[in-house]
Each structure stands twice: as C-alpha cells, then as structure tokens.
Design a protein that fits this description.
The protein is elongated, with a radius of gyration of 30 Å. The relative contact order is 0.17. About 65% of the residues lie in helices and about 10% in strands. The protein has a three-stranded antiparallel β-sheet, covered by helices on one side. By secondary structure, it is mainly alpha-helical.
Amino acid sequence: MPAKTVAFEQIKKLMGWCPNARAHETRHSPHPEYFDANIPTRGGDTGNSENLSWFRKVSSRVLLVDSFLTLTYLLIMIQLGVNVVTLLAGFFLSLISFILIWKKQMQRYDTLAQKLVLDDSNKKILYKRLFRIITLIFYATLFYWIFAGDLERNFLMKGTLSFFAGGLAFMWLGYLQILYWERKNHKTIYFDKGYGKWKNSYIIQERK
C-alpha cells in the first residue's frame, strides 16, 4: 500500500471518522422511550398548547350541546306549550341525580388530571340498561299515542317534552361542575385523541 494511503488512513482514524457513522446513528437514534412519547401518562401540559383551540375544551363541547338542546326544546315548547308539573318533575329528578353523583364525578376529574386517559368501557352495562329502559318507555308511549284521542295525545306530547326539558338541568349542572373543577384546580381540560368508542385522552393545561 502506498505511503500516502497509509498516512491518510491513519489521519482518518485519529479524527474518529467512519464512513458508516451516520448510518449507525440513524439506526440507533430512536430510543425506546420515544415510542411512547405521544401517549400521555401524567397530568400537566403535553406541549401541544399551540393547537388548543376553544373548541377542543371539554367545557366548550358540553356548552355547545347543552345550548343546542335547550334552544331546540324552547322552540318546540313555544309551539306546544309547557306542562309545569312534568317540567318540575324532570328538573328535581335531574337535581337529585346530579347531587348523588357529584363526588364521583369530581373524583373522575381528579383521576383524569393524573392519567390523562379515561377508559369508560366499564359503563357499557349501564348504558345498555338505560337504552333498554328508554326503549320500553318509547314503545309504551307509542302504543298509548296510537290508541289515544287527540286531547290525550297533546297532553302526552306536552308532558313528555316538558319532562325532558326539565331534565336538561342535569346537563347544565354538569357544565357548571366542569367550570368549578377547573377554577378550583387552576387547570383547563382539553380533548386530545380518541382510542375507540370508550377511551379518550385529554390534555390538562395549567391556567396562567
């Protein structure tokens, strides 16, 4: 081997140069911890604050749904009228139900602030039971509607809509509870990503 080539090889070794160094770095750069970087496990700001729009706030989504349903019921009830008895019945039933689940819901938000991911698959059975009950009520109401007279039909429709209008209090109380928790803990809850039907991840950001 010529002397110049030997000298050049020695210089490269001294300088630490290797033709496969860049490829080696590329192969080994993804450390294991990077694979879970996008899966939130602890509370706090995840670093996506620049994308946290008003619409991604949990409270904003609840507010939009509550406002839409309330406006819809108001427009319908203006045409049909209000049954005060069933309206108050729906309101007080919602109030009692909300008081009973207040503590559990606050604990749910506290857990969310730590894990950032909630799996509600354990509620499948509850939702199925509620769906069955609502289905039975629907068919019973439909059966009565078919065989009732005009006066009874108007009373049934007015009473049913008034009852569910009073039940909207449950949803508005839920909205106020989110605001209360956020103000108490100086945090804001945002939606992040969905992982199927029952699991969602969230972003908890400290309020400035």
